[in-house]
Design a protein that fits this description.
Layout: H1 7-16, E1 32-37, H2 41-52, E2 58-62, H3 100-108, H4 110-115, H5 121-134, E3 139-141, E4 145-151, E5 154-159, E6 162-171, E7 179-181, H6 185-188, E8 195-197, E9 211-215, H7 219-230, E10 235-239, H8 257-261, H9 268-281, H10 287-294, E11 299-302, E12 307-313, E13 316-321, E14 324-328, E15 330-333, E16 337-339, H11 357-360, H12 370-373, E17 398-400, H13 406-409, H14 416-437, H15 439-446
Parallel strand pairs: 1-2, 1-6, 2-3, 6-17, 8-15, 9-10, 9-15, 10-11
Antiparallel strand pairs: 4-5, 5-6, 7-16, 12-13, 13-14
The protein binds flavin-adenine dinucleotide.
Flavin-adenine dinucleotide (FAD) binds near residues 38, 77 and 172.
């Protein structure tokens, strides 16, 4: 282990040399070439990728007041270990010296890294903090995007701090970024004092001694149950719709490079069938999330028990689930997120112009799925496409980097598995668009006079020396 844990990372930056100068041409009245909405791992990795592509005037904004509240890792994520394998390429993109592995080994040694099965969540958060600080990525915390106003060849961004202009937008705004947390209708009817979503910051200490219901059976539901039990909840009941817990990680069958690298080019029918297949098999909780909850004798699992209705009676929740009556003090929805551009304030005014999968693809009757149909049908650069060509050309300058890209790209966009393929891909697209948008001025620039590197005096001494030309030469 070296004394300076950052020595390897410094050396890697030295070897790749300085980032290119900003080549994007100035336009009057434009504050930013690209605004990254969200300063989590996606926003920071994009900031680095755009810098290396020579794209300047990039601004990263985040509504959270500070780093600790941004992203999910230190609040909404409650698992002890990341769900994804430790070996995936993450924000380091093509530079291994910036990887989690390099960061961890520099601090704890190779053997320590080899010994961990999956990455501890708090270590991942610490690594991301280091990445941002080491690369000098500035995130403007406390700056929230409220509305995107298309304005010809650029956008006026309505921020809580004022209006700024940009040519490109990347929505790196997290798992609910094209919709929001989903509540089953039965829970939605409950007063907010009696319910929370796993996306919320939950005061688990207030649940000490209480009877808690968790609705849903994917990883976040089991994590919430585990944390509630560890915090001293009296009893925790988890209600699953299915008659078994989803245990088949069905997407693994498409985990080979041909499918991953080329997913966007696959026929619509193949991508839709894959998305439907994933929905039918369900999102699998990790083994450790289940074990964590099951280890408590006061944890109860109820299968085939969707919540059908709920009301408040005598200061408690009384619900019907799978035909049985449930009484509890507090209910947590671990039911994931919905996708609907119309639900997003920042897209108000043009959400209905965005092409969705249901506008583009008619599935066979045995593959109908409204939830998947509401996902945007994204272009190759993750850009929104127009439902009706010619009605909203500016959509091509909004690049979506959140889970709504799942049907188009086959992995939850923004998660670690998407980073290796999609951040370079979108960066290349932004670069191409910015270049072509100013092609006349760039062509002029490329036509410019170029000073010679040397004059004829450099080789003059070798001329007219009187020697005979070699045999067979034309002279
Ligand atoms: C419980 C849970 C566990 C997960 N576990 C894993 C895992 O193990 N492995 C994995 O790969 N992925 C996991 N994920 C997915 C995880 O969300 C992503 O990997 C990661 O957080 C994505 O980073 P991001 O930067 O895209 O989004 P986020 O980390 O969610 O960051 C989005 C940022 O956007 C900001 N923002 C949102 N709206 C606005 C706005 N209007 N204006 C300004 N800023 C805004 C937010 O404040 C936030 O900081 C998990 C997600 C959850 C919820």
């Amino acid at each position: 282990m070296t004394q300076d844990p950052d020595a390897g990372a410094h050396q890697a930056l030295r070897l790749i040399g300085p980032a290119p100068r900003n080549w994007v041409l100035e336009r009057p009245g434009i504050d930013h070439n690209v605004v990254l909405v969200g300063g989590g791992q996606t926003g920071c990795a994009f900031a680095w990728a755009l810098r290396r592509a020579g794209i300047g005037k990039v601004s990263v904004i985040d509504a959270a007041p500070d780093e600790a509240h941004a992203g999910v890792w230190l609040h909404a994520a409650r698992m002890n270990l990341l769900r994804t394998p430790k070996s995936l390429v993450g924000p380091e993109l093509s530079l291994p010296a910036l990887s989690f592995q390099a960061w961890y080994e520099a601090r704890h040694g190779r053997e320590a890294y080899a010994a961990i099965d999956r990455i501890r969540r708090v270590d991942w958060a610490a690594y991301l903090s280091w990445y941002k600080q080491f690369l000098g990525i500035e995130v403007r915390y406390g700056v929230r995007l409220d509305r995107i106003e298309p304005a010809g060849d650029h956008f006026r961004l309505h921020l809580n701090t004022g209006i700024e202009t940009t040519r490109k937008i990347v929505l790196a705004n997290g798992v609910g970024g094209t919709g929001g947390p989903y509540y089953p209708p039965a829970m939605e009817a409950l007063p907010t004092a009696f319910r929370a979503h796993t996306a919320d910051v939950i005061d688990f200490s207030a649940l000490r001694g209480k009877t808690v219901a968790v609705v849903g059976a994917a990883a976040s539901a089991f994590d919430a149950a585990g944390v509630a039990l560890e915090a001293g909840a009296g009893t925790v009941h988890l209600y699953a719709r299915r008659d078994t817990i989803a245990s088949v990680p069905i997407s693994r069958s498409r985990g080979f490079p041909g499918a991953y690298d080329n997913y966007r080019s696959l026929p619509d029918a193949v991508r839709w069938e894959q998305a439907v297949r994933f929905r039918r098999y369900g999102s699998t909780p990790t083994v450790d999330a289940i074990t964590r909850a099951v280890a408590f004798p006061n944890f109860h699992l109820h299968l085939s028990s969707p919540w059908e209705s709920a009301r408040i009676e005598g200061g408690q929740i009384v619900a019907q689930a799978g035909g049985a009556e449930v009484r509890c003090d507090f209910a947590i929805a671990g039911t994931g997120y919905f996708v609907d551009p119309n639900a997003r304030a920042e897209l108000a005014g043009f959400a209905d112009k965005i092409m969705l999968w249901r506008d583009r693809y008619d599935p066979p009757v045995d593959q109908l799925d409204d939830y998947l149909g509401a996902h945007p049908y994204l272009g190759e650069g993750h850009e929104y496409l127009e439902k009706t060509p010619g009605t909203a050309p500016y959509l091509g300058n909004i690049h979506v980097h959140n889970v709504a890209g799942f049907v188009s790209f086959g992995v939850p966009i923004g998660d670690v598995p998407s980073m290796k393929r999609d951040i370079p891909g979108v960066t290349a697209r932004i670069s191409r668009d910015l270049m072509l948008a100013d092609i006349d001025r760039h062509a002029e620039r490329m036509r410019a006079d170029v000073a010679p590197d040397f004059g004829p005096e450099l080789y003059a001494a070798a001329l007219n020396r009187g020697g005979l030309p070699p045999r067979g030469s034309r002279a």
